[in-house]
Amino acid sequence: MLFRHQLKTAFTGLKTNKSRSVLTILGIVIGITAIILIMSLGQGAQKLILSQVEGLGSNTIAIIPGREPKGPSDFANIFLDSLKERDLEILKSKSNLPYARDIMPVVFGPARLSYGSETYQSTVFGGGSAEQENLIARMFDLETETGEFFGASDVQSKSSVAIIGSKVKKELFGNFSALGEKVKIGNHSFRVVGTLPSKGQVSFFNFDEMVIVPYTTAGQYILGRKHFDRIIVTAEDETKIDQTVRDITSALRQSHNITDPSKDDFFVETQADLAERLGTITSVLTAFLTAVASISLFVGGIGIMNIMLVSVTERTREIGLRKAVGATMKDILTQFLLESIILTLVGGVIGIIAGTTLSFVLSLILSAQLGNAWEFTFPVQAAVLGLVVSASVGLVFGIYPARIASKKSPIEALRYE
């Protein structure tokens, strides 16, 4: 029998039981849809995270207190207070970091803001420099909507001045001006000297929901600490990043009297390091979720095998009749295999369309929620993989029913009631 005739016969067999065919491919549709959805959202999340990492610029280096976590046991050996004022002064020395352009200590933590009867749970971001003007604005590419950033003299004198994000301003002041007003952060009053326009995420900091104050003020009056959560350093250019990292490590080890690198109570992370680490994490997570979603394909394959076995039993007389008029075992085997593969391929195509549509809709929703920061991504590899896997499932799980059908005796099949 010619292949086109076998194909036509397979389609005819499937059309005869349309409802059963639709229910049979449902498991494949769900599996492929889940894979497309997970991989698309996973790639979108990865791009979003990497774009946030790049928000500080490629020349940025972060010094983080504590031992660099390499496994669960390392979290018991973290020294969160290992970066202090003396370390900052050592790093500011040009003899120690000759290729550093800007150095800024950072402290941050939760705090409740209040103005009149209004309150808002916010995050305090303490930064700035006692030597350089507008360092926060320059590092994070920020501009004020009203007012201006506090200066180096405010950092030196621990001034009670604050710049509030757009959401903070809306929650506390509504449509009224916040400039010159005093807000309470904890038990301390601060004068609002500037407000920020809606900015969203900048390297994991959502400045819309933050209040920015001098790091000296935040440490003494709000957070009550004498150490830093980060020290951010920018190199003169990208070619000096590696050397600056070595200089930072050497200077801090000398400051902390560390001779064994395994005893470091700090670690240095570049934007490239962070991007690579986060990229690996999101890729592994996406792969894991994809593997979990693939289980439904296996379940769908078993469902197809069961339905095909039922179909073989129901069509015993048809098989006997076809063999009686000259159909060979190969013809019967091919017909039932084609039916199984067609079912799974159709399910794969429907799953790709459904997964892509759902991914696009969810991307639009996430983009609206995140301020156009989420990008829709169509995972081409997932679509190709979905088609290949669905066809393979049809082939693998269709072989057993097809072999049973092909081995039926024509005489016994024609006698079947």
List the helices and strands and how they pair.
Elements: H1 3-16, H2 18-53, E1 60-65, H3 85-92, E2 100-115, E3 118-127, H4 135-140, E4 146-147, H5 152-156, E5 161-164, H6 166-173, E6 182-185, E7 188-195, E8 201-202, E9 205-206, E10 210-214, H7 215-222, E11 230-235, H8 241-255, E12 266-270, H9 271-314, H10 316-324, H11 329-369, H12 380-406, H13 410-415
Parallel strand pairs: 3-10, 5-7
Antiparallel strand pairs: 1-11, 1-12, 2-3, 2-6, 2-11, 4-7, 5-10, 6-7, 8-9
Give average pLDDT, whole number: 80
Helices and strands: which structural class? alpha+beta
Cα distance spanning the termini: 27 Å
Radius of gyration: 32 Å
- Provide the β-strand percentage band: 15-25%
Low confidence ranges: none
Give the proportion of residues in helices: 40-55%
H/E element string? HHEHEEHEHEHEEEEEHEHEHHHHH
Total count of domains:
2
Number of contiguous helices: 13
- Give the strand line-up of the largest sheet: 2-3-10-5-7-6
Largest sheet: 6 strands, mixed, barrel
The gross shape turns out to be elongated
User: Got a strand count?
Assistant: 12
